[in-house]
Structures are given as C-alpha cells and as structure tokens.
Write a structure and sequence with these properties.
The complex is a heterodimer of chains A (about 170) and B (about 350).
Chain A lengths: L3 H18 L6 E3 L12 E2 L4 H12 L15 H11 L16 H4 L1 H6 L8 E2 L1 E3 L12 E4 L3 E8 L2 E9 L7
Parallel strand pairs in A: 1-4
Antiparallel strand pairs in A: 2-7, 3-5, 5-6, 6-7
Helix pairs in contact in A: 2-3
Chain B lengths: L2 H10 L2 E10 L10 E6 L7 H7 L8 H18 L4 E6 L6 H4 L8 H9 L1 H7 L7 E2 L20 E4 L3 E4 L3 H4 L5 H8 L10 H13 L16 E2 L15 E3 L11 H15 L5 E4 L6 E7 L2 E7 L6 E4 L2 E6 L2 E6 L2 E9 L2
Parallel strand pairs in B: 2-3, 3-4, 6-9, 7-12, 8-10, 9-11
Antiparallel strand pairs in B: 1-15, 2-14, 5-6, 10-11, 12-13, 14-15
Helix pairs in contact in B: 1-3, 3-6
Classes of the chains: A alpha+beta (about 170), B alpha/beta (about 350).
Amino acid sequence: MYNPGMTLRATLVVLLFTPACVVRYPTVVPIREQQFRSHDQPAALPLQKDDRADFEHFLGYGGNRFGRNPVPDAQAAGHKQTLDALEKDSNLAIRGDLASSDFCAIAAPLCAAAPIFRKRIAVTQVIDARERQPAVPDPIAVCDDEYCWVFRQAANRLTGVVVVRSVKRAQP
Amino acid sequence: MSLHSDLLAALRSLAQVQLVARLKDARLNFPQTGELHVFLPDIHLITAARRAEAGYLYGANYPDLLEAVVGALGRFKRNAAPAGEVVVYQIGDLFDLWRQVDGLDPEANAASAIQNDHASLLAALRDADLNTQFLLGNHDYDLYRFPNFDAWQRSFILEPSVMLLHGDIFDWVENLPAELKNLVLYLFTASHPAGTADLEKMRPLNRNRQIGKDFRAYIQNREPARTGTWRANGYDGESWNVQVSGTAPAEMLLYLEAARARCAEANRQFGSALSAAVIGHTHQARIAVHDEDGEFFALMDCGAWIENCRTDDDPTPRPNAQIAALGANEMVIYQLAPLE
C-alpha cells in the first residue's frame, strides 16, 4: 500500500547519502585568450615596475587587455595589496609539498600580505592549450571574485604570475 | 649490436647492473628489431613531509639513481633514432595517493604536492622529448579524473602480441560479476579502450583494496620478494631464470594463469593474438612462462623501485630497483644499484 510517510523517509535517506557517492571532479582554470590574460608569458616574480603597470592596466580595464574604456575595479584595494605583496621576495615562499586545497596554507606569507586570497581554493589543474603538454610542476592558481591569478612555481617559491579574467560568474 | 645491448651499455655507464631474468623465444611473436619498449615499474612516490608525519618505514629506493636512469633513457632514445624507436613506459603507481592522503583528494593537490617534492625526477619523466607513456596503477588510479593526467592510460596493447597493464586487476577480477568482467576485458583490447565512464565504474573495486590497510610497514611484500637467481654478465641473449609452470614454485607464477586466461578470452572475443603480458604491481621481478600442450604464454613482472627483494642464493634483502625491456622476441629484467 502507498505510504507517503515511508516514501518521504526513503527519499530523504537517498538524498542524505547521494553526495557521498558522487565523484567530484577538480576545479579547472583555463589560460584564456590573449584579450583576457594580462601577459602572454608569466611576469617574473618579484614583480617589477613594467609588469606591475601591465597588471594595473589589465585590471583597470575590466580584464580586457585590448579594452578602450576603463572599468571600475570592485576589488581595487585588494588588487593593489596583492601587487604590492608580489614585489617583495619574502612573500613568495610557499609549501609546494603540501597536499591542501587551502591556498593560504600553501602560500602563507602572500596571504598575510594580500588578504584577498584568504579562504580561497588552490587550483592545480591549469589548462593552457598553447603548450605541448601540461606544465611540470603544476602551476598554482587562486581565483578572487573576478580574476584568477596563475602562479608558476619552482623549489618552493612563486616564480611568475599571469592574471586571467575568470570564466566563472558570480551568482546573481 | 642491438637495442637490447645498447640499453645494457647505457645502464652500465651509471649503475651496477645484474640480470634478473631474460626470455628469448620466437613464440613471443614480438619480432621487431627496430624498436625497444622499456618499462619502469612501481615507484610509489609520496612527499618527505608525509612520510615523516605518517611514520612510513620505507620510501622509493635510490631516487637519485632513478633520475639518472631516466636521463640516460632520454639520451638512449635520441641516439637510437631514427633507425630505432625506443618507447619508455612508467607502468603505474608512480604516485602513491593512498599513502599521501587519508581520504579523497578531489582537487588533485596530493598529486601536485608529490610532483613538487620530486620536481627534478618528475620533470625528467614527463619531459616532452622522452614522451613517457604512463599507466594508472591502483595507488594512483584517481589521476584519471584530473586534466593534467588525461594522457595516462589503464592499459596498452603492444602490437601484435603483448598486453601491458599495471596488473592490479588480477587481484580481484576473478570475483567480479559478469558485467564488470566484460568491462575489465575491454582493457585487453585496443578497439574498446576504457573511457572515463568505464574507469568510474571500476573505481569502487579499486578503492575496496585500500580498506583496512595503512601501508606503514609494507605495501605488497612484508618479506623481501623472491626473484630466483641473478647473474652479472655481458650480453649473450640467452634465456635466464625463467619460471616455468609445472616446475617453478607457485609464488614465482603469481598471476601467470590469470593473465593467460584473460588474454585468451580477449583473443577469442576480439580476434587478437596476445601471447604475453607485462605487468608491475606485485613488486616481485620475474619472468614466468606457461608452456604446455602446445600453448605458450609469458608474463613479465617488471618489479619495483620500492620495498626489497632477495635471490635464491642470497637471503640478504636488496632494494628493488628494476627496469625491464622488450623487443626482438626478447624480454629482460635488470636489477640496478648505485656505482660504488
């Protein structure tokens, strides 16, 4: 006999256990078209004056390298802190051997100086279709609300960075 | 000179080399003299920090030597071309995700952390010019979900007659329901390669093998693996230390019958002519042969670069550090050690 209460309970049980069985695929960051990336090759770190100017232009034009109209940067203060932080060698040390999704666990000094990265996920699956094969070691990417900062690394240091306009959109 | 002898010379330039086993037999039906397939077995890399934190009693053997070997393989491959083709494989369990993290690793951070901690070895192995062909093992099976490892496979067919796979499926394939057995059979043919959806279906079977194990003291072999009798010699091309079913001890024949049965089934179903399988997984280097009633089948287990082995004439544990090769109807396994 049909029993609505039993059906509801069964449905709840299924819903409760389903997420545990679903395979999660990793977050991916693509290196975007030339228009939507700050540089063609990562800017060397610590950040130098010319590269900083390129980042400021890119971020000031809404993540459009070829844009003609400035666009207000909603995270301007955070981005300025980040660029300031990337100029200092002491902020570039990382724990590359840490198996963590917490970007700030990996890049603690940078996070201390650039709070915009706090509580953000470290993404190691960066797709760059210009390359012959995936980079080794993996880049480390971290996305703020609108941009993804893709870092190159070597020997537990951040060695380069390129910023791309994120393909993700905030929920309306 | 042959590619086999050239490989031996390249290895001897940087390591002590001993012959673990060699099989020379036309019935391998792998006659190509212009190509050599070289196999690097299980390495089980984890980060140094994780090893200390989790209290693992062992790690990958001779990492510096391994990196030198990979570099030498790159030079060997370049020098052999264009007349000869050298193909290098890492046949699974390069990373040990099971030991690196306690649970799921959905963002692939464990694989990245291991790569970063062994950066120079990984850069050498994943060098575009070396073009290493990677297999997924059971300890790094989950890499199939990560874009940076899209090229890694579950099996290869080396035409016309050799099956290459990690070997872990032989742990559990006999106990599977029919539907999943067919899925496994697809690993044994180039015409129905296992896709992501297939790998997804097999994933729980793989994970079940991990349950209840901490791998703190060992992965496969609590005691050093038996490998028969080795010899140090020049290249003479003769068979050596081949374990033949019917006469060899059972432990030396592990998975020979399982591999033979699966290959025979694939031959029937897909019209292939598989007469040999190359595996890793057991960390026990050996060549075993079924040669009865007119039927010939060979299994080469390439060994490992982790845990220990021993020979029949010397019980002293020796760190597994093996490399294997196949070509010109000849399969061979070498044991390496650093030069003194």
